[in-house]
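Please review the protein record below. Let me know how this chain folds according to its tokens.
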Amino acid sequence: MTSNSKMSNSKIWKGLRLFFVVWGATLGFSSPGGAAPVLSLEDCLVIAEANHPNIAGAAAQVAAQRARLAQSVAADRLEVSGSVAASRSGTDYDESASYSIGATTSIKVFDSNRNKYRVDSQRSTLSATEEEGRSTFLDVRTNVKSSYMTLSLNMEIANQRLESVKAFEHHLEQAKGFYQVGSKPWYDVTKAEVDLGNAQLTLVEAESNIETAKASLLNAMGIDQKEEFDIVPVSSDILSAPQKVGESEFLTSLATLAPLALDSRPDYRASALKILASQAALSAEARAASPNVSLTGGYNSGGDDIFDLETGWNVGLRMSVPIVDGGAAKAGIDIARGQLASLAASQEKLRQDIMLEVRKALSDLTKARERIRISELTLVSAEENRKMAMGRYETGVGDPLEVTDALLSFADAQLANRQAQYDLQLALIGLEKAVGKEFAKD
């Protein structure tokens, strides 16, 4: 098989996969046999791109702006109009008829480039609208990624809470066994039952958080469905990948990321294009008092008898020059200048906000890496402490409070380590949003 055929087959399978994912989302995530579908992160991103109303709205805005550009361009093109008229009138003594048919045409010859600047303004506005659409697209992907990671983390928390329940159940059985043989007091059994109850409560809360996180993911995808679904848990390999990426010198240098953000952020590029559009609009308004010259022509036939009409034609130049407009031209210029100044100020504010976002994202990335390092040390210590406490209790010399503390500390250390790993992933997603660019993680 040739390289081209392999690429073709790959595109076909990718297209079929996208079709079934989107089709399943449209039908409410239905799957064969009624089983809850399992969505990967890529599936969620594909569904969001096909269903999110913000993306659809951005596409509609681009289409509308493209039509406005076409409307502006049409002002410089040949215009032709036709007319047909028939009338009949009369009195008590006489009546008459009148018939006419004609066509007129005109084309602009000179307008001091006023419409050219209007077209330039609309063209820059269209480009700005397209950039805003890209910004919306990236925002949707960012929200889907963050929601997916949050749901995966909540699923892991629930699993860990379940393991804690099992550990406390085992501890309760031990306490009952020691009480039955008379080596431990009833207090140990009561304490173990309370600890088990608390662990079960935290499990219920964790399961509730999963449902909330699922609703958030559906909202991020732009889907309003009540059917059950599941996701592919984020693997340890994926969670460790951003740690390697985040440690790179490229992603820790403000001097590198700041110019990249200004170059990559679609909303910042849109602000620059809006300024260009405003400048062109100002140039158009500045020519409002300039003369306009058009070439006109016409052909008509008319008369009292529909079968015997007299024909005629005309051609000429028409020039119009505003003399007094009540200050409308000056007001238009002032409005355009004010809008230009406002857009320049908004761009500067956006630039400052972007720099702040990048700084915060870099800070979050640094803190997340440090939390991973500390949490790994804490986890090793907590695991060793748990083994010692359980060993002491099993030999009859340990204290139930010591066991409880050791189990809770170990559970907290596990969660802190996992949370730190997810925090690093979320910090990298936040940095992608701040920079306006998705980083490769391979």
About this structure: Strands lie at 38-39, 79-90, 95-110, 230-231, 292-303, 310-320.
